[in-house]
């Protein structure tokens, strides 16, 4: 199963549409969003978000509701469910290629705070920097932020295909990094 994983849209209709386009181009069967879907959050100004339009983001993502898993982020609130035709869950887990992958936003668990029994991999968003690493026998990855990348990183997303993780630039499709879940 091919899975596309993105995070931290923060209300950008431009990047929500890019996510949908890239999801279809990738031929993935499932889209996982790791939170912070509509709101820019307290440290980001609305003018930092390209084409800030939460209702357009909702319309774009609602069209994918049958093929999505959405993790609740620290900027997602109960009121967001009023414009969403999909559910937000606190955490998720997938079994792909014989590996258990734990999915979370990243404001509670991250590379420095691995959840108990997280399995073979932990994938989280929140920090807006994409990477693939290994710690204490766990593969840890972050898709970065499609909308507001930090530390000079690209607008990025992950592809999970069996036991392989591929970090890609959402603007040009170039591979930034790739590795296996060990």
Automatic annotation (TrEMBL):
Cofactor dependency: a divalent metal cation
Keyword Hydrolase: yes
Occurrences of domain Calcineurin-like phosphoesterase (ranges): 1-163
Gene Ontology molecular function terms on file: hydrolase activity; metal ion binding
InterPro entries associated with the record: Calcineurin-like_PHP_lpxH, Metallo-depent_PP-like, Phosphodiesterase_MJ0936/Vps29
Listed EC numbers: 3.1.4.-
Alphabetized SUPFAM superfamilies for the sequence: Metallo-dependent phosphatases
Keywords: Hydrolase, Metal-binding
PANTHER family per record: VACUOLAR SORTING PROTEIN VPS29
Similarity comment: family membership: Belongs to the metallophosphoesterase superfamily. YfcE family.
Name by which UniProt lists this protein: Phosphoesterase
